[in-house]
Each structure stands twice: as structure tokens, then as C-alpha cells.
Design brief:
Helix content: 25-40%
Largest sheet: 10 strands, mixed
Shape: globular
Structural class: alpha/beta
Distance between the termini: 27 Å
Bound molecules: guanosine-5'-diphosphate, 6-O-phosphoryl inosine monophosphate, magnesium ion
Number of strands: 20
Strand content: 15-25%
Radius of gyration: 21 Å
Strand order of the largest sheet: 9-7-5-2-10-1-11-15-19-20
Length: 425
Amino acid sequence: MTQVDVLLGLQWGDEGKGKIVDVLSPQYDLIARFQGGPNAGHTLEFDGKKFVLNTIPSGIFNEKTMNLIGNGVVIDPIILKRELDNLKTAGHDPVAKGKLVIARKAHLILPTHQLLDAANEQKMGKNKIGSTLKGIGPTYMDKTGRNGLRVGDTTLPDFRERYDRLVEKHKEMLAHYDFQYDLTEKEAAFFEAIEFIKNIPHVDSEHYVNGFLKAGKKVLAEGAQGTLLDVDFGSYPFVTSSNTTTAGACTGLGIAPNKVGHVYGIFKAYCTRVGGGPFPTELDNEVGETLRKVGHEFGATTGRARRCGWIDLPALKYAIMLNGVTELIMMKADVLDGFDTIYACTHYEHNGETIDYMPYDIITVEPKPVLKAIEGWETDVTKITKNDEIPAKLSAYIAFLEKELEVPVKYLSVGPDRTQTLTLG
Ligand code: GDP
Ligand code: IMO
Ligand code: MG
């Protein structure tokens, strides 16, 4: 019996999960997305081509690998259809090749969920979360509120009545928000997409994944968002609405905790955040602007500029603890190539004390980062292919992080392409 390896973000998302899942997928028989929805944008680059996946697991370009959209994911049929149409146009058709299955128990994002997301954010004004407006929060609310519609429901004879009942409720809520909308086009697209996704095999993800394990096959669970956006442990309420942590892989796929094997924690050599909420190491200045420019830090889903800052060790330690990370993956080291000095936040000053954890009142009193200066490597690392070409000062940075975080860095990414990846140690 094998175990499920988990790969997830340790920061506020966009760490480079898509790239690394694609790189690792030849080692696995199944890649399984376990939470989130099309709020995610996972970018893959190879052979001079670039793809952004929102719902589809990032193993889709590997010929041998099966891909599962797990029960913990919320699916917008319109977006899933568009993703698959785009892949087909680009010469990849995972449905025709039988490489994609979806969980019956995954919840559906309705057009009215998106409207509710927008209405809620509009009402919050300057206190808004900065949601991607994909309907994620309202869909998970209907899931936990036991009103939701699931993929498996689409084949029931009374699906349309169930849909109408839920939409009626949403319309009442929208009237309460005094929110203006026109549903006609979206609704037509929704039902067209529902017919389309009936062609993708529906499975019980719990049996499906455990079947792979029983057969001795290798499974990688792909997270979306990042640990600091977790609904329980992130900077609430500036979070997403799912558990982005390893525990989320258990509930989002139907695997027992003792079936979890390696946990790969992925982070950028610095840090970014998109949307509202606290960000202690944020650089709201020229340095932040340089990181944004060099790192092309603009959202893969919404195109929004990402906020940029230095690496935050208290936050990473917290994320490592919550997830049981066994190996680290450091991304975007190349973005720091031009800096003569980089900084790492080792502690916070908070309410007159020095602390090394994320405090509960982070929302109301933002901690001040205590920064350690580190010599930059000032070398172009994007063309490095061998470990002995890694500049000594970059190796020293990695060694410093390993000592602080007490977990080894297994992979180092030095550019967006598949090939720009080094295996360390
Ligand atoms: P994800 O949501 O975690 O999959 O990450 P995103 O795709 O949203 O954002 C990561 C961005 O960084 C994408 O544009 C990737 O192509 C890019 N990227 C990934 N790894 C590297 C790297 O090592 N160096 C550079 N410069 N870009 C990278
Ligand atoms: P990937 O998988 C970065 C952020 C939004 C917002 C908050 C809530 O690409 O790393 P939501 O749409 O979930 O209601 O938004 O979470 N957010 C992400 N930030 N990467 C993501 O996904 C994100 N998904 C949601 O910007 O602050
Ligand atoms: Mg992303």
C-alpha cells in the first residue's frame, strides 16, 4: 500500500504550485486537486508555451498521469468547460484521452454564487476581502449550510428543480443586498456547461484514491491557495473559504491522515500576497515594485498586481507546523538575482514584545518585522542546470533557511520553465 504525497503553498498562494506539480507528475500515477476552485491560477511553462489552469490538476500534460478533481473542490462548470476547450485548441484533450475524472461529491458554483460574492464585497466597501469574485465563499457557505448542489446531482431527473430552488434563495439574498444583475446569458452558459461535464467520468474520490493506494500506485495531492489563506488558520477574515492545509487533503479527497506520506511545502524566496489583509513584511516602496516587476507578480486569475515583500520566517514556521512539511521547495530564487542585499524576517515586534509567531490580533495590530540582512548572490541563476553552479551566497541563503525552518529544501526553482528546476541534497 502506498501513501498520498501532498504539495501545498506555505504563503499566501501563487508560490508556483502548478509548475512544480507538472515537474513532479512523471513520478506519480495520479494528481488530485483537493480544495479551492477557479480562484486558483496555476501556471505551467514548457516548450515555449504557457498554460494557466484554474480547476484542472497540473498533471494534465503528463501522458501517463491520471488527474482527479476531488470532492473538496468547488467547480464552476463554465470555467471548467472553458479550460478544457482551451486545452483542446492547444492540442491537448484530456477528456478524449480519458485522463480526467471529477468527484461526484464536488460542489457546483452557480452563476448566482458569483453574484453573491460580488454583492458581499461591494457591501464591505474598503473592508472587502479582495476576493477573486469566482463565487468561492458563497459556494462553500451553501456546502456547509447543506444547501449546495453537487456534480453527482446533475444526472438526477429533478436537477433543474433543485437548481431553481437554490437560485430562488440566492435571488432573495441579492434583493437584500439591492444588487443589480442579469442572469440570462450566464444561466444559458451554465446549463450548456453542465451537459458538457456529464461527459467527464464522475467518481467517488474516496474510493478512487484509496483504490490507487491499494494497487501500490503513487498519488500526489495538489493544493490551491496557500496556508496563510486557510479558513481556520489564515489571517481571518482575509482568507479563502477552504482548508488549504494537509488536513484539507484528507477531507478533500477522502484519505485517512495515516495515508499521508511526504508533504512538500512550497514557498517563494521572498513573499507575495494578492487581495486584502495583513502582510507584515510588505514592501510598499521601490523595492517591492522591483520584486513585482522582476517576478512578474500579477495574478494568473485576475491580473491584479500582487503585493510583494521579504520572506517571513515566523509565518513559514507556522505553515510548516500546521502541515507537517517534510520537504521544502524554494521558488523564484532568480527574482532576487539583482539584489546586493536581501532580507529575511526572523521575528516580529508586537505590542512591545519580540515574538516569533503570528499573533491572533494580526488583523488589528500589524506586527513589525525584525529583519536580518543577507548578502545577495548578484548572479544570473536562470541558466543553471547543475548544483555545483549554484552561487555560494545562494547556497548560504538556502542553508540559513534550512537551519531556521528545520526542514530540508529538496527542490530549487530558478525560472518559470519546467527545465529550470534543480534537485538539491
Ligand atoms: P501557483 O498558483 O502556486 O501555481 O503559482 P502561479 O502560477 O499563480 O504564480 C507563479 C508565477 O511564477 C507564474 O507566473 C510562474 O510561471 C512563475 N514561476 C514559477 N516558478 C518560477 C521561478 O522559479 N522563477 C520565476 N521567475 N518565475 C517562476
Ligand atoms: P493559487 O492556487 C493567491 C485570495 C484572494 C483573496 C482571498 C479570498 O493560484 O495560489 P476568494 O476568491 O477565495 O474568495 O479570495 O484569497 N486568493 C488567492 N491568492 N493565489 C490563489 O490561488 C488565491 N485564491 C484566492 O486574492 O485575497
Ligand atoms: Mg496562482
